[in-house]
């Protein structure tokens, strides 16, 4: 059974555009019409830019038309501050390439997620480490004008905590504060465990909170808010079903190298395999999400990297070390 069919049977959506692109191109063996991909490397990782330019490409990818930038940097897992600074600089560079803001334009940072659940606390953690400057226009020294962009920051919580749809809270703030741009940060679900805490996706298409874990909320998009929305996300969980399928795939590859064993399992019914996975996951309604035990450290590291990257992109005239000093 094709991987895409397996994901559909289990109702698993791919948050990462790069994973959807690799899956579709791998199964079809050809380029996706209306979609362009570019890759570049840097000393600590790789940057993949996927541009969905036509409705047909959007339909095939299951993603809106727009730009999706993925920074893959396994070094994020390590306690290497110098390497983290380079990842931060690359994040600021890529984010700056799609900001499209005038020097006097303002921005609203929104940290999506549940601060009480560590794998879902990325958004609030980024807000904790971010620099809010909008109030300084009124209460700060005059010399900051023209140096620090007006930035507001908000961690609105989740529906289960507030009883209010997150998108409604953000819409109310946007209507009142009237920013020129919203940057929403959220935790994502990945297909591969290798991407947990090491892949950063930037998209200019907005975001649908909770879609990767089957808990779709109202979309935080330009259509709903009335201003452009850039989404920044990092995978923090993987569906247990995809892990089980990956183990089975590797097991079958090893068996197929042995002609005798290959004949034994040649008639294995893929549907039966899927049903076995469903039976194991049944107590959790096939929606068991897995995260590493060191997720608290990963969330802390990534929160600092993303907050610093956003700060450098929004305040390009301020040196990174000065921004870090202002935050602290």
From TrEMBL:
This protein's UniProt keywords: Hydrolase, Protease, Zymogen
Gene Ontology molecular function terms on file: metalloendopeptidase activity
One Pfam entry name: Peptidase_A25
Top-level enzyme category: hydrolase
Transmembrane segments: none
EC number: 3.4.24.78
PTM comment, free text: Autoproteolytically processed. The inactive tetrameric zymogen termed p46 autoprocesses to a smaller form termed p41, which is active only during spore germination.
Propeptide: 1-15
Gene3D superfamilies: HybD-like
A single GO BP: spore germination
Cited InterPro entries: Pept_HybD-like_dom_sf, Peptidase_A25
Catalysed transformations (reactions): Endopeptidase action with P4 Glu or Asp, P1 preferably Glu > Asp, P1' hydrophobic and P2' Ala
Record-stated family: Belongs to the peptidase A25 family.
NCBIfam families from the UniProt entry: GPR (TIGR01441)
Function: Initiates the rapid degradation of small, acid-soluble proteins during spore germination.
Subunit structure: Homotetramer.
Stated name of the protein: Germination protease
Organism: Thermincola potens (strain JR)
